[in-house]
Amino acid sequence: MNQNIVAIDGPAGSGKSTVAREVGAQIGYSYVDTGSYYRAFTLFFHKIYKKENPTIPFSEWIKNKNLENEISKISIQTEFLSGGTNKTILNSEDVSEEIRLPEVTEEIKYLAPLRIVRDFVNQCLHDLGDKYKLIMDGRDIGTEVFPDAKFKFFVTASIDTRAERRFQELVEKGVNVDLDQLKEDIAKRDKSDMERKIAPLRMADDAILIDTTQLSKNVVINMILSKILQS
Ligand code: DC
After folding, report:
1. Which residue's CA lies nearest to atom 15 of ligand 1?
2. CATH 1.10.10.60 correct for 2-224
3. What predicted TM-score, i.e. pTM, was given to this entire model?
4. How sure is the predictor about 130, in pLDDT bands with cuts at 50, 70 and 90?
5. 10, 43, 100, 231: which has the highest count of C-beta atoms within 10 A?
6. Which residues does a 6 A CB cutoff place in the pocket of ligand 1?
7. 32 alpha carbon – ligand 1 mean position (Å)
8. Domain limits of the chain?
């Protein structure tokens, strides 16, 4: 059993990153947003795609890339800041904002299902796990990346609630979005995360399920904290 890892998996918009960050700060574990690795990996290719400006869509273009050759040119790192906030560094460049671009979010589904990409990200995560106590959020941390993690949680919520929370978040940032469109995007992401053959989104048999639909953030944080501190 790996005492140094807390795995928090769940679908997009379930609020897992907020609770992971705060629980981590309270128990002295560094927070890692594992989605940021898939985002940075995708951004690397997104930038090349933009530069080449091809006439074919990204989904076709990426099929013609030799990922094995390109992967050695990619370095992704998490820089831990105080209070559980992080920076994502892609080849020495801070890409923390850029990885959230909607085009990048959309293109992840062409890369995240590939074994070579998942092996690359998992190696990065294991390298971190060798050095630090970590609380990680993602889709496959408790099932594939650290199946031996002592603490595993699966945090979810209804699709309406997840879309509504994301909507509020964006409104607060001054971003103009359509709630129905957000809901549709989240449903599409759920589908591609759950239906991929390798490391699909699913709850580990030994994870604790937390449905946050009716729960406040603080209640969820306290539930997770009490489970960890109890054992
Ligand atoms: O957590 P996020 O929404 O930022 O993640 C972005 C995408 O990365 C998500 O749609 C699927 C992929 N991902 C994954 O396949 N495995 C993980 N452990 C984390 C994210």
Report:
1. 112
2. no
3. 0.95
4. very high
5. 10
6. 12, 34-35, 38-39, 108, 112, 138-141, 189, 193
7. 12
8. 2-224
